[in-house]
Design brief:
This protein has 2 helices and 7 strands; from the N terminus they run βββββββαα. By secondary structure, it is of the alpha+beta class.
């Protein structure tokens, strides 16, 4: 498997990038699984700044008023639909809650992304033949 040397992604909120269409900014929207169960909310979008593509959703769940919330990461490939206030994903709640966690002190960022794509079974965006999902449409 070919892997680019750096798989560094940047949180959209930490960058100077903006989406061309503000309606495409799904941060703050609720996330529901394929069965309609609440997963949390989209806290941020992880962007491949080299290719200007959203690669992951950072979904926060649990906690009270944002304190103590746990982040989970989902490849953008999991998004099945978006409405004005909800993002639906193809993965069930228990699968998302059991996904590998990212701790920068314990695991390299590139290794983490590889493990996440392996876990969900999506082809990684750096792999040969990867095709960016036609939905959702994110433009910078």
């Amino acid at each position: 498997m070919t892997r680019q040397s750096s798989l560094s992604l940047t949180k959209l909120g930490d960058s100077d990038q903006v989406l061309v269409d503000p309606a495409e900014d799904i941060r703050g929207r609720k996330v529901r699984d394929r069965n309609g169960n609440d997963l949390g909310k989209v806290d941020d979008l992880l962007v491949d700044s080299e290719r200007h593509k959203v690669r992951m959703l950072r979904v926060e769940h649990g906690g009270i008023l944002g304190l103590g919330a746990t982040p989970s990461y989902l490849p953008v490939d999991a998004v099945t639909s978006i409405s004005d206030d909800v993002v639906c994903v193809s993965e069930p709640r228990d699968r998302v809650s059991d996904a590998p966690r990212y701790d920068p002190d314990l695991v390299d960022e590139s290794d983490y992304y590889q493990s996440l794509y392996d876990y969900y079974g999506y082809p990684p965006y750096w792999g040969a033949g990867y095709v960016y999902p036609t939905y959702p449409f994110y433009r910078f």
